[in-house]
Amino acid sequence: MTPMSKEKWLQSLPADELTGDEVELRQALLDFLSERMPPWQSLCIAMYSGFLLVLNLDIVVSTADRYAQTLGADEAFSGLVIALTPLFQGLIGIPLNYWMLQSGTSVKTLLILMASGSVAGNIVYALAGLMRSRYAILFARTLIGICQCQLGGPIYIAKAVGVKKRTKVMFVFSAVATFALTAAPLLSALLETFVTELRIENLVLDADTIPGWFMALTYYLFLLKVVFFFENPEKELLPDVSPSAEESQESMWTTGFFLCLSAGFVSTMTNSVAIVYFVKLAQHTWGWSVPDTALVLAALMAIVCFLSLVSSRLAKLVEDRRGLQLSTISAAGCSVLTFQFTPVWSVAAMGLTLAGLLFLLSSSSVVKNYAYALAPKIVPPQFKDRAGTLNMLALTFGRGVGAQVGVLLTSHTFAAFLLGTYLLLFACISVFGFGMRHSVPLCDTPEMSQRQQDTCRRSLRVPCAALDLKRPGKGKGGASAPLLNEVLRDPSISRLRAALLPYNVPLQEWLEARIGGEIEVRANQKGQQEMVRRSAEAEAEPEPEQEDVGEILDALPQDALTDEELELRESVLELVSSQAMSLHHVSQHPSVLTAKRKFLPDEVPLRDWIDRRIGGEVEVTEDDRVRSRTAATEEEPPAAPPAREGKGKGKAKAHNGDRAQGHASPTDQENFFLSLPAEKLTDAEEVLRDAILNFLEHWTAEECS
């Protein structure tokens, strides 16, 4: 094809709307982008990074106290060893990752640099025993915290995974990271047993230093995987039309956002407090060994992970703010079980404490899930990335503070501290929770061009037409329903339409002829075709008073037909010139509807106009058949199929991607509709009807979300 022919071909396309084929091609491209998945090797490495991050934090919990005491430190120092990693991860690590990515550093380069730092930090941690320096431990854990690549996995998923698959992939990423809470104490116990059974005990390798050597080797292998198998995500192909955070006059610092950050902080603080408290209680008070403590902690966290996954499925049944309230008060109630009710630790008392810790950790996990999900929803869209980063910082600081607080708490203060914390959080959510409303972006701000508005509407989960219901000055004719082209772009409807209808029969004609009593296509105030489901009142329209109909028809010229009447007469004669047709099908034929609405309201039956104005040429029989008086046919064909439960409305001309590249001849359309059963829909029609009704119901449900 020569350049000139390309230009002519582009000029031959409609300037104001896409053709049917263009709509289908555009939808195919958008579906491809929204459902794209990265190479599985890269995705697995990104998820593995989240697993290593949590593992590197918790694997030293069981041995940190003993390691600190070996180097001449106390319990508070051991808590600091655990707390330094998440604290410096929040203070320096996450801001550093964010700055590097914003400066153009690729995700692969970020992973390589951070993994190299983690290898070095774990080696220094393992060599602290040889150096006999407790400050070497602090330096090592600080370096590990700075090099924890907290943003690597989520940023890669956001850039490489299509929006339709992103939620599911992020759920898997969260589940993998949560599994590390179980793997950390389990690996700690196995490493302790390995060193003990082999009687390895020297200044370089012993039960206290082996977690450092193990994590250094693990991160080194991870580094090799990143170098040889990881691929950077492709650049975004869809434009970002949201106003920038700097240009926006809105603020994300609302009461609701502060509550989300507080809930996330408290939830991860609870996890660290409970884990450190349990290790100290088991080893110092109950007299358990390190392997026994680690194994019980692994079993405890495995059950917590399972309950967290189950609760995440049930969470969909509860509204986010209400779910955050319920999970907060539930955590407060579970903390009561961890009180030491007897002066002596009996088996029953230890069992009750373990059960309380189990339910407390499970409830705090649900609090974290709700807080993490709510934060991006209640801020303006241009702040979503920033809100996600701040939410991650709150979670990270919670882990660090909790590790230090857990060392300081005793069996008499642990339950009281958490009970008071969650009751205070519950009270704040109950009083100030009105600020946790979802932020819905608008697509028609004055700063946006028409092209940007159109792109925005296509990219939003909630069509902007739905927002018109909330704005003053919009009446029934406003954008209060989905446009016809929105319905036509739905993949399932497009597929079912292609399977049922011939290429030259528009979907709108099928709607009006077959299910016009349930669905109406009408023009809004802007002249755009929109689709609505008829209400029960619309389906039971009262019969028009005969006096009103007579007055309307009497107002027409008595000696001649008007130009509009001549157009309607031609449309009727064209349909019935060769064969009789049912009155209903003639009334609902697109050409008849278009011509009739130019001068008659819908309340005037077509039968009355035929009898009064062109009765000499066309007659309507007693069985509601329309035929030409000059027709020579003696045998009438069967009636065309009626519409379901009422009459359809709306102009019949195909708009916005409906199939009307060329208009079908009346004979072709008649043959198609005559092939359908008159009294019921076929199975294929039922499926298409249900798909359209489901689309309309889903669209209506999301307009208030």
UniProtKB/TrEMBL annotation:
Subcellular location: Membrane
Family annotation (InterPro entries): MFS, MFS_Domain-Containing_Protein, MFS_trans_sf
Pfam families xref list: MFS_1
Region named Disordered: 524-549, 621-671
Extent of Acidic residues compositional bias: 538-549
Transmembrane spans: 43-64, 76-98, 110-130, 169-190, 210-230, 251-279, 294-311, 347-367, 388-408, 414-434
Gene Ontology molecular functions: transmembrane transporter activity
Broad class of where this protein is predominantly found: membrane
The keyword Membrane is assigned to this record: yes
Membrane topology according to the record: Multi-pass membrane protein
Keyword Ribonucleoprotein: no
Keywords, alphabetical: Membrane, Transmembrane, Transmembrane helix
A GO term from the CC aspect: membrane
The protein, known as: Major facilitator superfamily (MFS) profile domain-containing protein
Organism in which the protein naturally occurs: Symbiodinium natans
